[in-house]
Amino acid sequence: MLRGEICPYCKQPTKFVDSIEVYRWRSFGMIYLCAPCDAYVGVHKDTDKALGRLANEELRRWKNYAHFWFDKLWKNNYMSRKEAYTWLSEKLNLPSEYVHIGFFGIETCQKVGKVSQDLLDLLEGRQVQELIENLELKQSQ
Q1: Per-residue pLDDT for 65 more than 60?
Q2: Nearest Cα residue to 67 out of 78, 56, 59
Q3: Would you state the pLDDT for residue 136?
Q4: Counting CB atoms within 10 angstroms of each CB, which of 51, 82, 84, 87 has the fewest?
């Protein structure tokens, strides 16, 4: 099922089609699609290798949620992308080769979002505290 050829929802074969069938206005390359379940997954460029697992609308929302929070860790330079995935591997207690949001189900995506939010709160709180301390230091000089 992780190859994208069988729909995990209805267990029927998927179709390998251009993503314009889903996005209507633009092609982002090929996808595996199960139209009855509104489930799809993209593939690596110029291959038929799925980027993750087929996702229906609900799972796609949770994957977006997970990426929204997790990606801030490395996009906002709190750590490198590699460090972020290493941290997530430890938090999820999974080997690093299995830490890919594209492979996760709803529960794991929810956990990724939560632990990422918690760490961001901690990191951003630390930054605010450092700013306050720097301002106090400057004012006392």
Answers
A1: yes
A2: 59
A3: 67
A4: 82
Query: In what helix (H) or strand (E) does residue 39 lie, and over which residues does it extend?
Result: strand 39-42
The one-letter amino acid at 108? T
Do 27 and 35 meet the contact criterion of CB atoms below 8 Å apart? no
Cα–Cα distance, 33 to 75 (Å, whole number): 30
pTM of full prediction above 0.85: no
Interhelix angle 81-92/57-75, rounded to 10 degrees, is: 120
The pLDDT-based confidence of 131 (bands split at 50, 70, 90) is low
3-state secondary structure of 78: coil
Q: Specify whether the backbone of 77 is left (phi greater than 0), alpha (psi in -120 to 50) or beta.
A: left
Closest CA to 103 of 45, 41, 57, 31: 41
Task: Name the token pair of 23.
Answer: 């996005």
Q: How large is the average pLDDT for residues 76-91?
A: 94
Q: What is the DSSP string of 11-39?
A: -PBPEEEETHHHHSS---SEEEEEGGGTE
Which pair of tokens denotes residue 120? 């961001």
Radius of gyration of the chain (CA): 19
